[in-house]
Structures are given as structure tokens and as C-alpha cells.
Amino acid sequence: MIGRGYAPAYLFTKEKGMEKITPRTLSGFMELMPERQVLFDAMVEKLRESFSLYGFTPLDTPVIESAEILLAKAGGETEKQIYRFNKGDSDLCLRFDLTVPLAKYVALHGGELTFPFRRYQIGKVYRGERAQRGRFREFYQADIDIIGDGALGIINEAEIPSIIYRCFHTLGLERFVIRINNRKVLNGLFQILGIGDKAADVMRTIDKIDKIGQEKVFDLLTGETGIPAAAVHHIIDIITCRKNGVDPFDKLGAFRGRNETFDIGLGELSTVVKYMASFGVPASHYEVDLTIARGLDYYTGTVYETTMSDHPEIGSICSGGRYDNLAEYYTDRKLPGVGISIGLTRLFFILEDKGYLNGDILAAPADVLILPMTEELGPAVELATAMRGEGLRVQIYSENKKFKSKVAYADKLKIPFVIFLGEDEIKEGLVTVKNMASGEQTTASPAMITTAVKAKLAEARNGAPIKEPAV
Amino acid sequence: MIGRGYAPAYLFTKEKGMEKITPRTLSGFMELMPERQVLFDAMVEKLRESFSLYGFTPLDTPVIESAEILLAKAGGETEKQIYRFNKGDSDLCLRFDLTVPLAKYVALHGGELTFPFRRYQIGKVYRGERAQRGRFREFYQADIDIIGDGALGIINEAEIPSIIYRCFHTLGLERFVIRINNRKVLNGLFQILGIGDKAADVMRTIDKIDKIGQEKVFDLLTGETGIPAAAVHHIIDIITCRKNGVDPFDKLGAFRGRNETFDIGLGELSTVVKYMASFGVPASHYEVDLTIARGLDYYTGTVYETTMSDHPEIGSICSGGRYDNLAEYYTDRKLPGVGISIGLTRLFFILEDKGYLNGDILAAPADVLILPMTEELGPAVELATAMRGEGLRVQIYSENKKFKSKVAYADKLKIPFVIFLGEDEIKEGLVTVKNMASGEQTTASPAMITTAVKAKLAEARNGAPIKEPAV
Predict the structure, then answer these.
(1) Where does A368-460 sit in CATH, by number?
(2) 3-state secondary structure A242-263
């Protein structure tokens, strides 16, 4: 049995007089009203389209994985946030990101995959964070990764910003900047400055410079981390050079030839930037920013962040980078890759909160509402069937209500066209349609009406889910 | 921070020499290889399109709900199957269907919704069933429901079979039959035959007639249920009349005027059938089948099952029916509705198992693979960017491999077109494309190649995910 019928019968056999249970949705779980859901789905669809243009294949992995797999070596704050439970003898977890399941997938099925393996995945992940406004315990991530078998060409790192650009551009966002850096450049630089042994700590601290400011970074590095003030001044002077009107490549050029890692990193960064225009990213939409370090140790090359120009305070809306070893917990096979993530649920929340959602997009559940004016519904049904055959989304409204309520139904749902089908129209083989936006009413043959409605809708459907507010 | 960067660092800082963890996916959890995933996604997309044509709005609800909400009154076998766990102080469950979350949603947000409320939802649900081949613990359901506020016109019940028809037809399945019945007809009939007090038991038993056969049904009804043999003979004679070449309406006509419920039910059944042709369902694809009772008590009117003509042994692949009260656990508001479900994961498994998947559908991750023959990749990148701008899905292959391996990459992934871009072509502003299926090679301007490739692909893309094997 594949259909419905498996739901527990008790749910529908409630005894009379029983206490009602107050319906509620868990806090930290987004549940949208229909119009908003349409916008959210439109965003997902635009991302799918964008990822597909770059040759990524869709993937879907289980939400539940064995704890052993998901927590290969867990501990601390992260594990506390994870939804973990037993079912029978099994120790299970809900996935907390899409990267670990990808690592498992590639390690498990690697023999059947063709490399470089490009996949996208858009799915829900779970983190039991402290509930607060704009933070979600269940949220969609949209990820892409390119995984090489042993090696992966630098052109893939250069391609990623163009995917980021196309994604947001297609969504309707224009005022954003992709910020690029390379961890080898920073690591090499720290080695040149004699603080290579503290590179990871320094990286984590300077990554926070946007949030906590230069002074606090200075205090942390000279204090906790124990780096001489002169070196810290030097580092901050270099990484913030763009702010002082100095091109990062000019600033970095002075260090060339002194450290191999640095030279490789600088070469990679130059290559990435060099191909940016060919990949179609406007110069206005990217910049090399040496303060972008990414907190995580596993990035080994190019790193990316994306900032909304109007709202830098939100932080990055799309980040990622190059890593050397995707799945070392599961396999000896060396699988370097590059990938990015968008936290879609939080992004959607922010877009709504800041007034960036396009309220003009066609979010109605139907294009046409047919109001039969006769008891016999055959003609209305036939008309609906014919229009659906032409790709129109049609509802028949036959509830026993007053005429005004029927029209109000279309109004509330913002259905753009209403067709009145009375005895006269049926006799004459005609149809009367009302354009709900203009109020205009037209009577013509069903075929002509269908063509006219389709043309009107084609215009309305071109909208993007994001519409930036005027500056 | 909305992007990646939140994954636990420990996953990528494994010490050398540590034991590997054997990657595995939990049993009962479907995880598809890329080509199969494309087919699965195509099925989901076709269902979305079909549902949308009937004016259903997409909905997405949390996978996790409070146990109190999900198990309004639980017990027995069902509760054992449910994934239930604590997180902090919260008693939580994973949803086991999409109907209970819908009931909650409508009860919670009913004030903001417009009725009749038509929604579809395609999402994962969880049941910890005993693991066996073809049974899944995590699986997709595709549901539609139409919810009325206090009342709901019969035309909605008549529309459902046309949605079922369109769904499977669009998926590429043709050899199937929608079987329709009405619970009021059965209930009324049982009252007329003097066994009205045992209607629920009789219903549950005759619903199994396809599986266990007439004799076993006879034994159960005369035995356990305690119904006189004569009455059971009578019931079986009526409900199986079609097998004996008797039209169910003729058979039922004799009972008209003897019981109100029966008469109402017969009227509803006639109306549903009457509109079937107007709704575009061919006579070959539906039948009134009085043995369809559905096991669940909550159905109160029309009920539906859908059977693959080649594989009746599989049972129904799409079922549902009319119910009177969707959300009585949560609200006093009377919310009658009608809905159906498709168990998508199991259906996909069966289609694959029985050889019904269309292997000819374009499942490659890209339409075009560009093989740059020069070290400078600018021209290849520009070509890719231009082709993507025209909607083509393009990959650039720049790994350091032998020519043969590069072409093998396209072969393995079944990418239909490969472009070789060497120095000569770049100089002359030309492009050489190879049609991988025919082996044909063409050299022309990028614009002409793009147009030609798009035309070829438009043909290939028209495939449906299901392709029935020859009989």
C-alpha cells in the first residue's frame, strides 16, 4: 500500500467532550503561510536552476544518520546542539549540516562516482540552538561542492564566485559583494612574520575583525595569543590595506619569494581574480579582502564570504572555501574539494525582516477561478479541464455561498482572473473573464480567453523572489 | 553568519593513524546514485506541476513536532513505530505522515487561511518499521488535501480522480486504474442488511479481499465478526458484482429508497462518476469497485485506490478519500475535507524494481562539457559563461589528465555534447562540438553551436520519468 491509509485511526476517532490540545509549532521551527511559502519555494527553484547551469547534480541524503558516522569525533558545544536519540538498539542523530553526509556519501559510493564530482543539495538540517529571534533549530541549507579525486584544478576555485554571483543576481539581489581571500596567503604571511606556530589562533581572531573591530583584535592577539605588538600592527596594517586605499596585491607583492606557501597562495588568489571577469562577475561585486579568514581549520586555499551591502551587520550570507580532505574519517582516499553554503531559512527570515521580499510576485494558488452560475457543473468542469490542458492553474469554486463571498475568495487569494460561467455564456459558447487587478471584464470564446490570460500571466511570472527596497 | 563555517572543526582535524569509521547509510533509508536521483526529482517535479494545475498551494511544515501534538491519543503498534525522543525538556516526535501536521497547521493558522484550502505537500516522513526489502523508515509522501470550512462541495470529490489520472499520466504511467467507492453506500447497505452495528469490522475485512481472497473474507466475517452466512454471501455477491459482469449501479439500484445514508452515498457516487469524463479521465482508467473500503474509520464518503494494471499485487499506489473532520483534536471548528497520498519512495523503489524507470531521460549533470586544449583558460571560461547565459548547463573540465580520460569523463556521465577548444579554434573564433551519441563532429561559431545544441536538447528533455515496459 503506497497511498494514504496508514495514519493512526485514533486521530480521527476522538470521543466527544475530550479536551482539545492547543495546536502549536515548536519554537525555532519556521512554518510559513501560503503566500510566503510560494516565495520561499521560488528561491529554492532559482538556486536549483543556478546550480544546474554549472553542471551540479542534485543529491538527497537521509536526515537521520548513525551517530557513529555523524559524530566521528565529537565533543563540546557542537555535540550539545545535536539531536541525538536511540531507536531500538541504534544510536542516531539528525544531520547538522550537509557536508558530513556528503563526506559519507562520497566515501561510501566513491567507486561508482565520476570525479570531479559536482553535487548540490538543498535540505533541512538540525541544531538545537538556544531559541532566539531569527535563529532556527530546523533550517534549510543550500550547498554546492566540487570534489576531486586526489587533485582538483584551481579553475574550480575561480568558478565558485561566479556561481555565488549568479545565485543572488537570479534571486533579485544586486547590492552584495563577494569577498575573497586565500588561507595559504595568510599562513605564509604569518610564517614570514615569525608567528607561523600561532597561525590557527591568529586566523580565528582576525576573522572576527568585522564584528569586534580592530582594537579588540589587537588586544586579543597581543594578550591571549601572545604576539608582539609590532607584529600585530604589521598584520593589521596588511590585512586592512584596502580600507586605506591600497590594493591588496600591491601590499602582498612585497613579500613574494620569501615563503613557498605564501607564493603558491598569492598565485592562486591572482588566478581566481584573473578569471573573474571571464566568468561574468562584475568588478563591482567582488573584492579581495585579506581579513576573511574563516574560523575553521579545514580550509586550505581560497575562502569566500558574501555580504549584503545594505546590511553588513548580518554577516556573510554565503560562505565556503577550498579544503584538502573531505572524508578522511571514512576513507584513505584523498578527496580535495571546494564548496559553499547558503543558510536559506535564516536568509529568508532576514530578507523578510528587512523588507527585501517581492510582494508583487504571483503567489496565488491558481491563475484562474471559475465561478459556475448553474447547478449543472459539466461546462465549468470541461472549461477547467481545457484550460489546465493549456498549462493554466485553475480552481472551480462551487461552494454554496453568496456571489459576493465567491468573488471575495478570489480577492483574498489574489487569484488574478475570475471566470463567470452562466447559462447565457454556456448557450453561446462564450466565457466572461474578469481581470481582478484592472477590474476589466471581457467576453469571448474559451480559446481566446485562454490565450489572453496566458499572455498576461507570462508578464507577471517573470518576477524574482527578492526585490530590493529603494536606497 | 548564514553560510558554511559552522561545521564542527574536529571533523577535519583528524590525527594521523586514527581508525577509519566504515561509512554506511542506515537500513530502510533510501540514498540514490546521481542518475537515479535525477529521475526521482523529475517525478517530484511532475507531481508539483500536476498539483499546481488544480490550484493547490505548496506547504512545508516541520519534520519535528511536539509529541503532545503528534500523538494526540496514541497507543499500540503505531506509537512503537514513531521516532520519539527528548531534547532538553521537550518531548518530540518525527512526523509519521503529512495529515496530522496539516490538521495542526489548519487549526493553528485557520484564521489567516481562505477556505476551501487546497494544499499539496511533498516531504519526508518517518516510521521505524521492521527493516525489509522495499520498506522504508524514511520516505517521501506526496499529499494533496482540500479542506472546507464547515462544508465542502461534492465536486471536489469528483475532481480528485482527475488529479490522480493527470499525475500518473504525466509521470509516464498509462496502465493503471483508479478504483472508486463510497463509504456511505457500504454503511447504508450494511444497515439495510441488518448488520449496521458491525459496519466498521465488515469494512476493514472486505477491504482486504484483493489480498486474502473471497473465501478468507467469508471465513472472517462468519467467524470472528459473527455475521450470518447468508448475509455474507449477499454482501460478497453485491460488492464483487463487476467480476460477474454486472454494473455496480444496477446492482445497487435495487436498494434505493430503503436507507437515507445509502441514498446519499449512491447519489454522491453517481455524481463523482458523472463528472469524470468532463474532468478528462478516460473510461478505461477508472471503475466503481465496491470492495474498496479503506481500513480507516475516518473516511466518510468517496474513497479512492489506484492499481497498476500490470502489478495489482503491489496494492494501491495512490489512495485517499473524504473525511468529515480533519482537526477535531485541536479545534471545535468543523473542517471536512478530501485528500490523497502517494508513498513516493516506495513507488520509486517498485518502479525501479519492476523496470518502469525511463533510462533514456537526460540524467547527466550537464548538457555540454568544455575541454580546453590550451593552458590559458580565459576563452573556455568565456564560452561557458556565454552558453550558461543561454540556459545551457555547462561544465569546464580542466583536470590534468590524458585526452582519453577527459572524453571518458563525459562518457561516464552521459554528457551529450563535448566541445574541444584548441588554439586554432580560439584564433578563428570557432568551436568544435562532438555529439556523443552519434559521434558526429561539427565546427561552427559559438552562437550557431549553442543554437544547435539547444534544439537537440529540447527533444531529449521531453521524456517522462516512467517508461512502461512492452507488454
Answers:
(1) 3.40.50.800
(2) HHHCCCHHHHHHCCCCCCHHHH
Question: Using a CB-CB distance cutoff of 8 angstroms, which residues of chain A are in contact with residue B22?
Answer: 330
Pairwise CA distance, residues B159 & B280, whole Å: 10
Given an 8 Å threshold on Cβ–Cβ distance, is A53 in contact with B394?
yes
CATH code, A175-312? 3.30.930.10
pLDDT score for A13:
46
Q: How far is B193 from chain A (nearest CA, A)?
A: 25
Q: Which of B65, B74, B323 is closest, CB to CB, to A8?
A: B74
Give A109's contacts in chain B (Cβ within 8 Å). 33
Q: What is the 3-state secondary structure (H, E, C) of A172-202?
A: CCCCEEEEEEEHHHHHHHHHHCCCHHHHHHH
Beta-carbon separation of A329 and B65 below 8 A: no
Read off the C-alpha cell for B118: 487546497
Sort strands A286-288 and A176-182 into parallel, antiparallel or unpaired: parallel
Identify the CATH homologous superfamily for domain B34-353.
Bira Bifunctional Protein; Domain 2 (3.30.930.10)
> Which residues from chain A sit within 8 angstroms of residue B41, using beta carbons?
58, 60
The letter for the amino acid at A293 is A
pLDDT by residue (tens digit) across B216-233? 999 999 998 999 999 999
Instruction: Please name the member of B5, B60, B280 whose beta carbon is closest to the beta carbon of A294.
Output: B5
Q: Are strands A286-288 and B84-87 parallel, antiparallel or unpaired?
A: unpaired
Please judge whether B7 and A332 are an interchain contact, meaning their C-beta atoms are less than 8 angstroms apart: no
A329 contacts B11? CB cut-off 8 A: yes
A295-299, B168-172, B242-246, B375-379: the lowest-pLDDT one: A295-299
Q: How far apart are CA B22 and CA A339, in angstroms?
A: 24
Report CB contact under 8 Å: B8, A381.
no
Inter-chain contacts counted by CB atoms under 8 A, chains A and B: 419
Strand runs labelled E in B27-89: 57-58, 64-66, 84-87
ipTM: 0.95
A1: pLDDT strictly greater than 70? no
Distance separating alpha carbons of residues A369 and A446, to the nearest angstrom: 14
CB distance A398–B155 less than 8 Å? Answer: yes
> b/e per residue, B83-95, with b = 16+ CB within 10 A?
bbbebeeeebbbb
Contact A26 B320 (CB under 8 A): no
Closest Cα in chain A to B144: A4
- Interchain pair B65, A388: CB under 8 A: no
> Average pLDDT for residues B357-381, to the nearest whole number?
95
Taking CA–CA distances from B147, the nearest residue in chain A reads A399
Pick among A12, A145, A419 to test the B interface (most B CBs inside 10 A): A12
> Is it the case that residue B412 has pLDDT exceeding 80?
yes
Rg (CA), chain A: 28
Tell me the domain boundaries of chain A. Answer: 26-147+325-357, 175-312, 368-460
Distances (CA, A) of B388 to B95, B364, B370, B394: 40, 16, 12, 6
- Residue-wise pLDDT for A230-265, tens only, equals 999 999 999 999 989 999 999 999 999 999 999 999
- DSSP letter for each residue of B89-135: TEEEEE-S-SHHHHHHHHHHHGGG--SSEEEEEEEEEE--PPP-TT-
CATH topology of domain A26-147+325-357: BirA Bifunctional Protein; domain 2 (3.30.930)
Burial (0-12, 13-18, 19+ Cβ within 10 Å), B289:
buried
Q: Cβ-count burial of A19 within 10 angstroms (0-12 exposed, 13-18 middle, 19+ buried)?
A: exposed
